[in-house]
Write a structure and sequence with these properties.
The chain is of the alpha+beta class. The protein contains two helices and seven strands; from the N terminus they run βββββααββ. It has a four-stranded mixed sheet with strand order 2-1-6-7, covered by helices on one side. Strands 3-4-5 form a three-stranded antiparallel sheet.
Length: 113
C-alpha cells in the first residue's frame, strides 16, 4: 500500500531560502482554514501546524483567493487518493495549484514532480 502526501512549496524566500514541506496524510488529525486565505493541518505526533495552501502563493501573480470550502475539498481529495493508494505501490502527492484561474488539489506520483 502506498502513502499519500501533501506538498506545499513556497515561492517566497524565508531567511533567503525557498521552502517546501511534505506531510503524510495519515498523520493529519486536524484541518482548519481561514476562509479564502489558507488551509492548515496538524499532525498527530507533534501537533505542529502546517500550512498546506496559502492564497499568498498566488496573490503575487494576481490569482484569486482560495475557495470557501477548500479545506473540505482537501479532505474529499484525500479520501479518493487513499482508495487509489490502497491498490497502488506508488506514493501519491497532493498539491494546491491554480489551473485556469481556479485553485485545485492536484495529485501526482513523485516521479511526475
Amino acid at each position: 500500500m502506498a502513502n499519500v502526501w501533501i506538498l506545499r512549496q513556497s515561492d517566497k524566500a524565508h531567511k533567503g531560502e525557498k521552502t517546501a514541506r511534505l506531510i503524510r496524510a495519515d498523520a493529519i488529525t486536524d484541518v482548519s482554514t481561514t476562509i479564502g486565505t489558507r488551509v492548515v493541518v496538524a499532525d498527530k505526533a507533534s501537533q505542529e501546524t502546517v500550512v498546506v495552501a496559502d492564497w499568498q502563493d498566488g496573490k503575487q501573480h494576481g490569482q484569486p483567493p482560495l475557495p470557501p470550502n477548500f479545506h473540505i475539498e482537501l479532505m474529499a481529495r484525500l479520501g479518493a487518493l487513499r482508495k487509489q493508494a490502497a491498490n497502488n505501490e506508488d506514493d501519491l502527492v497532493l498539491i494546491a495549484e491554480i489551473r485556469d484561474r481556479q485553485w485545485v488539489w492536484a495529485s501526482y506520483k513523485f516521479d511526475e514532480l
